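Incident log, structure service

09:12 report received: a user says their structure output differs between two submissions of the same chain.
09:20 pulled the input from the user's history:
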Amino acid sequence: MSMFKSITIGQFIPGNSVLHRLDPRAKFIALIIFIVSIFAVQSFLGYLALAGILFALLLTSELPLPYFFRGLRPVYFITLFTLLVHFFMTRGGEVLLQIGPLSIESQGVYLGFFMVFRIIFLVVSTSLLTLTTSPIALTDGLEYLMKPLTKIGVPSHEIAMMMTIALRFIPTLMEESEKIMKAQMARGADFTSGSVFKRAKNLVPLLVPLFVSAFRRADDLAVAMEARCYRGGEGRTRLRELVAAPRDYAAIATSTVILVGLILLGI
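09:34 re-ran on a clean worker, output below:
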């Protein structure tokens, strides 16, 4: 399994689950509350509670669980690097291991796993949002939430459109990277052996055509939008207007209650 195929953020899988049917505005607000909860929790018991909630949401989405776990593969290096930095750089508590001038102390282990849990929860929850929400719904939901900012001159529609396009093109660019890498390897390119500097230099034949392809796609998208008379958010109509249902208010209320409960319980 290629690392590029493990990218889940930005992809959308159609479905008819409860999460698929939720209003994108409710999902955005619930995601923000969940992210606040991730950083508000100060104990492993709190993270265990969040893990249970997230696991229940994954089951509710009716999407295959291995798909979400594959989505964590690209962040393995980040989590490992985070662990090592905290292990050897954070001081405090009992010395667990001494390696010459370096030592691993209990406080470093504690904070290291804290940060790893935060990264995992952030990636999985964000993937859950994009996997259960179409790009059009993402744009509309984000635009509606940013609409009050238009009163101070913020182009909410344009910002929402740019963010959605950028998010949507992540898996597309990863797919393109994989195709280019396989083509270069078929011509004798080596991306795995040698020193770090040599491998970085070998990436040049991959990055140049990738950037060319990205600019070409951007140009094609701009031409397609102009051909459809796209002129931004002013005067734009929608085929389906967003209408909040009781389940959307229930999702926001439940997320808020969970956050307040975690804070009050001090976990």
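09:41 both user submissions now match this output. Likely a transient worker issue. Closing.
09:42 reviewer note: Strands lie at 95-99, 102-105. The radius of gyration is 22 Å.
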